[in-house]
Specification:
single chain, Rossmann fold, five-stranded parallel β-sheet, 16 helices, about 45% helix, disordered C terminus
């Protein structure tokens, strides 16, 4: 542990940040492609990544925020504290030396930076508009179908926080009743889908003010989606982003052995990238699809239906197809 602390302390001073340009905020659910999206953005000139700064499973974040429970992040009285903490990443001296920084001379490291790129997976979904204003940035909301996300989740640290924090006021009594019933009697899969709905229902409430990107379209229609992201955030090197999209993300270490083997088969030409997007279909049955759809309907989320791979057309950046009839591009990026 001490060795890692020393390493990150050195990395902390291997960068000089001059706040100046609009920051970037990535809101997403774990296991939705956010690591690769962050890496594509972090390679761009002047970008300083801030990876999962609200993840209370890390002791140093608890220490810095002086919060130990997830419901505290959603407390109105703590909003300014969270903002000040996030703003502190503009000034190296204020950042805890244990916070992971970019390795010098790696593909995401820059000696001089002027924009922060926050990857926010663990809170503040209900204050996206306010955070964009207070952090002087723009937000992208990255979504992925709830079933593959739920099948790959191992922990649901914020489920009870959604049920017991101030943010419950933003859900209906029917939604909260279903969530409580499933928490007591539901399967792990059902709990995961509910957790997905809690988080993304909040994000979608103000989605008209921000850029929505879906994992599925990023995989299937890479170039126009990356072009849109680059234009939205004013990122100059689009070819580098496209090139990076063909490299496995740093989160593939969390993949199952079967998924890792599938990635190898894709590289050997024995499988296609389309299988990376559709493979979740092999792990579901009719009861699971019905249950997931019931939860989505109760939460009034219409971006996905349980039995379709693609999101609804109105949520696509460049609609070329929808449903299961999509024509897969065989040079799709590796996002697991």
């Amino acid at each position: 542990m001490l060795k890692n602390n020393n390493k990150y302390t050195l990395r902390k001073f291997a960068n000089i940040h001059f706040p100046g340009r609009k920051n970037l905020l990535i809101f997403s659910t774990p296991r939705s492609g956010s690591t690769l999206l962050m890496e594509m953005i972090a390679e761009q000139p002047g970008i300083l990544p801030v990876r999962e700064p609200l993840n209370l499973r890390r002791d140093y974040i608890k220490d810095t925020l002086r919060m130990s429970r997830w419901d505290e992040i959603y407390s109105e009285k703590n909003y300014e504290k969270v903002v000040q903490y996030l703003q502190s990443f503009s000034y190296n001296l204020k950042v805890d030396s244990r916070f992971k920084r970019e390795k010098p001379f790696s593909h995401t490291w820059h000696l001089f930076t002027n924009r922060l790129a926050y990857k926010l997976l663990h809170g503040m979904e209900h204050r996206v508009n306010d955070l964009c204003k207070d952090l002087q940035g723009r937000a992208v909301i990255l979504l992925r179908h709830p079933i593959p996300v739920s099948l790959s989740r191992e922990e649901l640290p914020r489920y009870e926080a959604f049920l017991n924090s101030e943010v419950t006021s933003q859900f209906t009594s029917d939604q909260l009743k279903l969530a409580k019933d499933i928490w007591i009697n539901g399967t792990v899969f059902e709990k995961s889908v509910v957790s997905w709905c809690f988080q993304n229902k909040l994000l979608l409430k103000n989605s008209d003010k921000h850029l929505i990107v879906t994992y599925e379209e990023l995989v299937m229609n890479r170039e126009p989606v990356i072009q849109k992201i680059a234009d939205y955030f004013n990122l100059p090197d689009i070819p580098k982003m496209i090139s990076r999209s063909l490299t496995p993300s740093g989160s593939t270490g969390k993949s199952t052995d079967a998924n890792k083997e599938l990635l190898k088969n894709v590289h050997r030409g024995e499988a296609t990238f389309s299988e990376l997007v559709t493979k979740w279909k092999q792990k579901t049955d009719g009861d699971m699809l019905t249950s997931a759809q019931t939860i989505l309907d109760t939460f009034q989320i219409n971006i996905y239906t349980s039995n379709e791979i693609m999101p609804e057309t109105q949520y696509l950046i460049s609609p070329v197809s929808s449903g299961n009839d999509v024509a897969f591009n065989e040079s799709m990026p590796l996002i697991d």
